[in-house]
Structure formats: C-alpha cells, structure tokens
Amino acid sequence: MLKVLKIEASARCEGSISRLLTNSFVETLGIDMSAAGMTTRDLADGMPLLNEEWIGANFTPADQRTEEQSAVLAFSDELLDEVETADVILIGLPMYNFSVPASFKAWIDQIARVGRSFHYTENGPVGLLKNKQVVVIQSTGGTPIGSENDFSSTYVRFVLGFMGMNDVTFINADKVGQNAAQVLKEQASAISTLATNIAAKMRTAA
Question: The whole model's pTM is what?
Fold first, then answer.
C-alpha cells in the first residue's frame, strides 16, 4: 500500500481554503485520514526554529554526537522519517505575504539536512528524497500564482527538487478573495482527476 504524508501549513484550522482542498483530495483518494497508510503533520501545532544548538548537532557526524545532540535532532529525525517513508506527499500551502508561511519554512529547515535529504558530490549537491509524488495545493487571497509577486511557488519547487523531490504537481487556487466559490469549482476537476489517478496507483500497489 502506498503511504501518504499530508502536510497542512495553514495557521487557520477553521475556514482554511487550503485545508478544504487537501481534505477534498484525501476524500477522493478514498482512504481514512487515520488509516495506517496516512500520516498528517499539522504545522499549526508548532514548528521549532533552528538555533545554534541544532546547527551544532546537525553538523556533528552521527557517530560522534552526544546524547544531548541526538535529543536535539530527535524531532527533525521524526519529520525526516515521515518524508522518507512516504510515497505520496500532499501539501496544503496558503500564501502569506507573498511567500510561504513561516511554519512551512521552519519545516523545510528541519528536513533539509546534509546526509539525510541531500549530499554533496564533486558535481554539486544531489537530493536523496527520491521516488516521491508530491502534490502542492496552493491558495492565495489576491496574488496570482506565477506573477512577479509570487515568491512561494518558485521557492517550493526549487527546494523540493534540491532534496530529490522532482515529481511535483501544483494545484493553484489563487485569488480566492475575489471569488472563492468560482475558484473552488475550477479546481475541483483538477483535484478529482489527480486524486483518482493516485488512488488507482494505490490500489495496484496494495
């Protein structure tokens, strides 16, 4: 059975467009959110920022870390385990002030670790988180996705690819502040088609 990791980046637990759309996607997949093959990481629950202690532990070779350093990285290890074991990663990503929410950037900082999600070679960095299908459902209040004021989607595509996740599909629910009902209607078909295709793959892999 394919494993699905669902990342919710909206600070709003009620009335969130991105949450509404990710839940619709999961419903089309036809799996229970509490099922063994489904993991949800809600960034609204809090995501720690990097500090000097974390950086020192991260750049200490694993076999040389103290117990305290290993404890510092324990949560980061947990987040990376979730990504590494997932076959499909679904990200609900609202745009805040023209970019990604701070909690999502903090999540990226926790999982972008040399030796775990990428490594350096003589030809440059190589991503290690391969063979994953990523679906990013973006929502914006008024900023058009792909416009000169969109500092979110380009960053997300690059940083995921940097870690080896190059199979990324974006579903863009932008400018919902102008006509949310119309935007949701327009994206319903894209969500249904993509989720149905992934569901078929999941049944094949079962």
Answer: 0.92
